[in-house]
Design goal:
- The protein has 8 helices and no strands.
- By secondary structure, it is mostly helical.
- The protein folds into 2 domains: 81 residues, Orthogonal Bundle (434 Repressor (Amino-terminal Domain)); 39 residues, no CATH class.
- It is elongated, with a radius of gyration of 19 Å.
- The termini are far apart.
Length: 138
């Protein structure tokens, strides 16, 4: 595990700690639901002194009501950025430039709304389709 400088908080630790606090459940209950033997490991993860074991991501995500894909991505990004880059280069479908621009624009809207639940309305989808149709070369 990399050494922590003061103020260099683990983003995974912050996420886990926030979700534990938000859940209203005891740490021991969450740890048990996540498959840990006792609450000590969960406490170390929350403090950023230990990493989430990849084999516990599913249980931890379920017990904290976090999307498993988000927790997996965040853990890879923080603990194994080279592996994440390799996965993204080789296993994430590639988009053409226009599709990538559209994807990036939509993703930035979701981040601006600070919500994993960002959804487009039917009207918004229709407007996007109209814009694409207008800009499509004949």
């Amino acid at each position: 595990m990399r050494s922590k400088k003061s103020g260099d908080a683990s983003q995974v630790a912050v996420l886990i700690d926030q979700q534990v606090n938000k859940s209203g459940l005891r740490a021991a209950t969450i740890a048990e639901k996540a498959g840990f033997n006792g609450h000590q490991m969960l406490s170390m993860i929350r403090r950023g002194t230990s990493r989430v074991p990849f084999e516990r991501i599913n249980g931890l995500a379920k017990s904290l009501q976090i999307k498993e894909s988000k927790l997996f991505h965040d853990c890879l990004e923080e603990y194994q950025p080279t592996v994440l880059a390799l996965i993204e280069r080789n296993y994430v479908p590639r988009l053409n430039k226009a599709s990538q621009q559209l994807h990036d624009a939509l993703a930035s809207c979701g981040k601006a709304a600070k919500s994993d639940m960002f959804r487009l309305s039917d009207d918004q989808v229709a407007r996007i389709k109209a814009i694409i149709k207008e800009t499509k070369p004949e």
